[in-house]
Amino acid sequence: GEAAPVSVAPSLQAVPIGARLEYSIVWWGIPVGNAVLTTSRSEEKGYNGLVRLDFQARSNWYLRALYPVRAVLISHVDPQTGSPRRFQSYLKRQWRLHESLLTFDPSTGICVHELSEGRRVEVRVSPATQDGLSMLYHVRTIPLELGKTVPLTITADGKNWDLNAQVVRASVVRIGRMG
Predict the structure, then answer these.
(1) Which member of 75, 105, 114, 135 has the lowest number of beta carbons within 10 Å of its beta carbon?
(2) How far apart (Å, rounded) are the C-alpha atoms in residues 173 and 7?
(3) pLDDT under 50 in the chain at which residues?
(4) What is the pTM of this model?
(5) What are the beta bridge partners of residue 114?
(6) Nearest to residue 140, comparing CAs of 175, 88, 102, 103?
């Protein structure tokens, strides 16, 4: 049967469930890779019904021969609040590998970071704290004004990072059938 529709918080309406966004990665005008971002409803045990954001990027065939890069980011987000519940990252550059798993517990305000080399760190987070992928969706819900600074907090690598994003240009970008 068909899955029941999910009520989605404004932070996740910017890219609807079932979306697939494809990107070309360009460095100094030279195409160097591709990336895909998809949204779906999670069916994983413990995260069933959450919105799943998947981002995968890799260097193209000719850069891969010199400098292979592969990144996989997965964020599970509560569709009611827009807050992340779990974030997995895998980044491999040449021979260097960085993996992490972040598990958010909104009832305690703690995010457990399981990092490379078996390191485990507990970080206190607020309900507004995002991971590196869910933050992109959170930003899409904020009324942005040219020249204004937007404060953001993400948690990564065993600590919180306070960021200030500044709106420097406004433009309309059409994304296929999504407008």
Answers:
(1) 105
(2) 26
(3) 1-6, 8, 178-179
(4) 0.82
(5) 101, 120
(6) 175
